[in-house]
Structure formats: structure tokens, C-alpha cells
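RECORD TYPE: inverse folding
INPUT: C-alpha cells
STRUCTURE:
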């Protein structure tokens, strides 16, 4: 019985340490992007979309008109998931994804872009 308690304690400590590593990575990524875009008219948004198993974090830099300048995607379960730039969304308008949030079959990335578009509209009005 004491062996099970020790295993549980080790697992809890491991989870705490790995969570700290994940938070530090996220903070450093966000800081890097915001310092790159400092002094420009571009806006930076992040959104998390939860799937049945995986989560997708989308970080996007858009101009005033809603055109995607940079799009970064982080998918995965563990701390080993890293942000990768997704070039296929560069130059796209956020307005093109406004209905994706309601569609069940839409990719998680497009759902996140639709949610970002909605937040951008709320900030304008």
C-alpha cells in the first residue's frame, strides 16, 4: 500500500514539474511574438479549441483589416507539443472562417480562427 502512495506522489510531482515547463514555453513563445510585432499596427490573438482528445492552440497575428500575417498552431497532449508556423493560412481573411465555429466537421484550426474573428469584431464595436 505504501508503494502505491509513493507512486502517486511521484506522479503528482512529475505532473507539476511538467506543467511548469509547459507554462514557461508558452510564456516565452508569446513574449517572442509580441516583441517581434511591437510597434506595428498588427494585432495578436490566441485561441484554444478542445477536441475529444487533443487540444489545439492557435496564435495568429492579423492586420487591422483581419488578414492573417502569421499563424502558429500547437497540437497535442503533452509538453512536447510545440508551436509551428502554418503557412497555408497566411494572407487569408478571418471573415472567411466566421461560420466554421458552428460546423461540426470543420477543422479545429478553422474553428479557432472563427472564434478569433468573433473576438476581433467584439473589440471593434
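DESIGNED SEQUENCE:
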Amino acid at each position: 500500500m505504501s508503494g502505491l502512495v509513493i507512486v502517486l506522489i511521484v506522479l503528482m510531482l512529475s505532473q507539476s514539474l511538467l506543467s511548469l515547463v509547459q507554462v514557461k514555453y508558452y510564456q516565452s513563445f508569446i513574449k517572442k511574438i509580441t516583441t517581434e510585432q511591437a510597434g506595428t499596427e498588427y494585432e495578436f490573438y490566441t485561441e484554444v479549441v478542445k477536441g475529444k482528445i487533443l487540444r489545439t492552440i492557435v496564435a495568429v497575428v492579423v492586420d487591422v483589416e483581419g488578414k492573417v500575417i502569421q499563424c502558429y498552431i500547437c497540437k497535442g497532449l503533452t509538453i512536447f507539443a510545440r508551436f509551428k508556423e502554418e503557412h497555408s493560412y497566411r494572407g487569408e481573411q478571418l471573415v472567411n472562417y466566421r461560420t466554421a465555429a458552428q460546423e461540426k466537421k470543420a477543422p479545429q484550426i478553422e474553428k479557432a480562427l472563427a472564434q478569433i474573428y468573433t473576438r476581433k469584431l467584439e473589440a471593434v464595436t
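NOTES: The chain has a mean pLDDT of 87.
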